[in-house]
Every structure is written in C-alpha cells, then in structure tokens.
Amino acid sequence: MHLLLVEDDDMLAEAVRDGLQRAGYTVDRAPDAPAARLALTDHAYHAVLLDLGLPGGSGLAVLQGLRARYDATPVLIITARDQLSDRIHGLDAGADDYVAKPFQLDELCARLRAVVRRSQGRVSPLISHGKVCIDPAKRVVTRDGEPVSLSVHEYRTLLALMEKRGWVVTRDQLQDAVYGGSSSIESNTIAVYIHQLRRKLGDDLIVTVHGFGYRVGEERA
After folding, report:
1. DSSP class of residue 220?
2. Is the confidence at residue 124, as pLDDT, over 70?
3. Is residue 81 scored above 80 in pLDDT?
4. Span 51-71, mean pLDDT?
C-alpha cells in the first residue's frame, strides 16, 4: 500500500515513515504544501496522512484542492490534540478521519486500515459511454470489458469528460481537474492526454469542439 505523508517536522516524519515502512507500507513524504500538491498531482496513493500546519500553505487548502477535482483518496489528518477547530474544519472539507498528536503507531495503522477499508466499501455508480466504462471506486477503466491501463493524468482527464457526457469541457476546466488549477503546465499538455486516450480507447470516444474544448457523447441542448 502506497501512502503520502505530509508533515513538516523532520523528526516526526522520519519516525512515522520508519514505523509505517516496518508495518509494510511504502511511504512518500512531502514536507510542505507545494510538495504535497505536486505529489498528489503526479501520483495515485491509497491514503494520505496530512498535517494541517504546513510551510507554503495550509493542509486544509491541499485537502480542498484534492476534493475539488473529485479525488476520493482517503485522508487521515494528523493534528495537535487541542486543535478541535482544525479537526472540525478538516472533516468538513472532506477528511475521512484524524489522529491526534502524540499518537502510537498501532493506533495510526488501525485508523489507516479503517479509512482505506471504508473507501473500498463505498458504492460509486459506474460511468459508461459506448464501450468504455469507469469504476470510480476502484479507479478502473475498461473497454469492451477489458481493463485499460491509464496514467494518473489520463484517468483524471477521462473522468472529467465522462462525468459531463454530452457537454463541452474546456481546456481550462480539464486543466483544473487534472492539476488543480496549476498554470505552469505546457499549453499542449491536455491535447497530449486526449491523443493518448483516443489511442487507447478509440478515436470516436472524444470529440474536439474547435474553439471550445472537448466532449464525450452527443451534444446536449
């Protein structure tokens, strides 16, 4: 299981990462908010351990950005025991649970197992168009019933289009869905993902609406 630990305290992060690795997890660490956003953009994790007080921005903003692009990755907030308001704001923003500092590794692992188990048990409707189907809960894409391997960015692009079947989705909207509004990507990046999706899923799946964006399915009035 691949985790992201977002924690700016070097000693605590080292201790937590070592403990989780001994428990069998693979752990990436982000020491600040920009690094966390980059990691969550470039990788798919089974769960995130998120401190709220971070350099370069708040953990709450990182969480809100994650949920804004419909990413349901389980998030476990790491917070100081007396920060009740932070816990409430975090849960309201979409966190799945929290653990208060100081904590025991056994408790942390138990809460991780619980949030991942709950996320796997969620019932999410399948999204289908023609031969292509997305299972958002499992992040699985199939064509004619056969699984298709997509990169993280290709998957997010496809999901954004399939969720708005029949409507035109602009390049800027797709960029928001894939990168959380970052303006630093190359201008043709979304076009590259569209090309890859057509290659893997069929040329007729995604229609280019010149001057506007892209659409999956028949145009809606």
Report:
1. P
2. no
3. no
4. 88
Helix (H) or strand (E) holding 153, with range, is helix 152-162
Domains parsed from the chain with CATH numbers:
2-121 (3.40.50.2300), 127-216 (1.10.10.10)
CA distance 198 to 192: 10
Backbone angles phi and psi of 164, in degrees to 5:
-120, 45
Confidence of residue 87 (pLDDT cuts 50, 70, 90): confident
Rounded to 10 degrees, the C-alpha dihedral 105/111/112/114 comes to 150
What is the model's pLDDT at position 183?
53
- Which range has the worst mean pLDDT, 52-61, 83-92, 125-134, 170-179? 83-92
* Residue linked to tokens 């619980």: 114
Query: Is residue 3 a contact partner of residue 27, using CB atoms and an 8 Å limit?
Result: yes
CB 124 within 8 A of CB 135: yes
Is 139's pLDDT higher than 90? Answer: no
207 token code pair: 């229609």
List strands edge to edge, sheet with 127-129.
Answer: 127-129, 132-135, 140-143, 146-147
**For residue 90, which of 124, 53, 123, 116 has the smallest C-alpha distance?**
53
